[in-house]
Amino acid sequence: MAFYEHVVISRQDISPQQAEALNDTMKGLIEQGGGSVAKIEYWGLRNLPYRIKKNRKGHYSLLAIDAPSDAVKEMERQLSLNEDVLRFMTVRVEELDLELSPVLARRDRDRERRSDDFPAKDGGF
């Protein structure tokens, strides 16, 4: 089997729970095809670089996939039929990177930096 990284952007109108449900649907399709999903990251609602189908924002998700090509093709076919999906891209990689993606790592780093800027509420420093 081959390794893939898959990014999907869904419409801004759907809720984060619906975006997570879409991720679970993709995972189910891959597992039905004999593959496995090693990692799913929901990056949240983010600004698009340009309008896509009249949307300025989209829900981004990243999947790390270990599956045969037929399973990936079927998942892409199903996504192309889904009206909630704006764009998707699948890239074959040599090995799966199971660490936190740069998008989420930066978000965590920013949160830590913001919490360090404010003193503790109990009066201690």
What key phrases describe this protein's structure?
125 residues, four-stranded antiparallel beta sheet
Mean pLDDT over all positions: 87
What percentage of amino acids are in beta strands?
35-45%
Please give the count of helices: 3
Strand arrangement in the largest pleated sheet: 2-3-1-4
Structural class: alpha+beta
Distance between the termini: 53 Å
Query: What level of helicity do the residues show?
Result: 25-40%
User: pLDDT under 50 segments (min length 5)?
Assistant: none
The value of Rg in angstroms is 17 Å
Main sheet record: 4 strands, antiparallel
Q: How do the helices and strands follow one another from N- to C-terminus?
A: EHEEHEH
- The count of strands amounts to 4
Q: Which term fits the overall shape?
A: globular
Describe the fold and architecture:
The chain is α+β, with helices and mostly antiparallel strands and 125 residues long. The chain has three helices and four strands; from the N terminus they run βαββαβα. The protein has helices spanning 16-32, 69-81, 102-117; strands spanning 2-11, 36-52, 55-67, 85-93. The protein has a four-stranded antiparallel β-sheet with strand order 2-3-1-4, with helices on one face. The model has no long low-confidence stretch (mean pLDDT 87).
